[in-house]
Design a protein that fits this description.
This protein is mainly β and about 250 residues long. About 15% of the residues lie in helices and about 45% in strands.
C-alpha cells in the first residue's frame, strides 16, 4: 500500500504541478510589449486611426483622433461619413460637440470613474488593462488553460470585474502576444458567434509594442475593422486648452 501511495504521489506533479498561473502569462505578455515601466512612464499620447464599421446593415467610414494626458484628460474626435463628433473630458466636465453645434456637457456619467482613470482600457492600448489590474478592481483566473485554436497553441486567461461579464483573453504560446479577447470560450477565431476582438499587425513604436489592426466580430460577422495610422507616445505639444469645455 505504501508503494502504491508513493507511486500516486509521484504521478501527481505531471497533472497538477504542470499548471501555469495566469499571472505568469500576463507578466510575460507585459514584458514582450515593452515592460511595465515603458507603459507607466507614458504620460500622454495621440493615436490616429481609420475604421470601417458594419452596424445593423449600415456601413460607416470613421477617421478618428484620440488623445490622452495624465492624470485623466482625454479628447476624441471622429469623422463619421463626413460628420464630425467630439467628446472630451477636462478633469471636471465631460462634454461633446456635433458638427458645428455648440459644445454641451454630458449628463448622467459617473464622474468618479473619470477622476480615477489613468487612460482608457480599449483598442490598441488594451495593455493598460493588465497593468495593476488588481487595484483597478479586476480579478484574474488562478491558472490559465492551454488551448489549440485553429491549429495554433494559446494560453486562455479569464479576467472579470464585479458585476460585468468576464472576458477570455488568448495569448500566443509562441510569443505571448495578445491575439484575441472574447465574451465566451472559443474553439476557433473563424467560427464563433461570440463578441470577439482580434489583434494583429503588432509594431514597435519607441519602446512599446501595439497592434495596428483590430477586427471585431459579432454573431460570427465582421462588425468593425480598425487600423492605426499614426501613434505618438509621450507627445509633448498637447495643449491643456484642447480638453477644456468652453461654456
Amino acid at each position: 500500500m505504501r508503494f502504491i501511495s508513493y507511486f500516486i504521489w509521484f504521478l501527481l506533479p505531471v497533472s497538477v504541478f504542470s499548471q501555469i498561473k495566469s499571472e505568469e502569462i500576463v507578466a510575460k505578455y507585459l514584458t514582450t510589449v515593452g515592460g511595465v515601466s515603458a507603459w507607466t512612464e507614458m504620460n500622454e499620447y495621440a493615436i490616429e486611426s481609420e475604421s470601417h464599421q458594419f452596424l445593423n446593415g449600415i456601413e460607416q467610414d470613421i477617421d478618428g483622433l484620440f488623445i490622452e494626458k495624465k492624470p485623466n484628460l482625454f479628447y476624441s474626435k471622429k469623422n463619421i461619413n463626413g460628420v464630425t463628433y467630439i467628446m472630451a473630458y477636462d478633469g471636471n466636465t465631460l462634454w461633446q460637440q456635433q458638427a458645428d453645434k455648440e459644445p454641451k456637457p454630458v449628463v448622467g456619467y459617473i464622474k468618479d470613474k473619470f477622476m480615477e482613470a489613468n487612460f482608457r482600457f480599449a483598442g490598441s492600448l488594451i495593455t493598460y488593462l493588465f497593468i495593476d489590474y488588481k487595484n483597478n478592481g479586476y480579478e484574474i483566473s488562478d491558472f490559465c488553460e492551454e488551448r489549440m485554436i485553429d491549429n495554433k497553441p494559446y494560453f486562455e486567461v479569464l479576467l472579470k470585474i464585479q458585476q460585468f461579464n468576464p472576458y477570455y483573453y488568448y495569448f500566443s504560446k509562441d510569443n505571448y502576444l495578445l491575439k484575441a479577447r472574447s465574451q465566451e470560450k472559443i474553439d476557433s477565431f473563424e467560427n464563433t458567434t461570440s463578441h470577439l476582438e482580434l489583434f494583429d499587425d503588432y509594431r514597435k513604436i519607441g519602446n512599446i509594442l501595439i497592434p495596428f489592426l483590430t477586427e471585431t466580430y459579432d454573431g460570427g460577422r465582421l462588425s468593425s475593422k480598425k487600423r492605426v495610422k499614426n501613434f505618438e507616445p509621450n507627445k509633448k505639444d498637447i495643449s491643456i486648452e484642447l480638453f477644456k469645455f468652453q461654456e
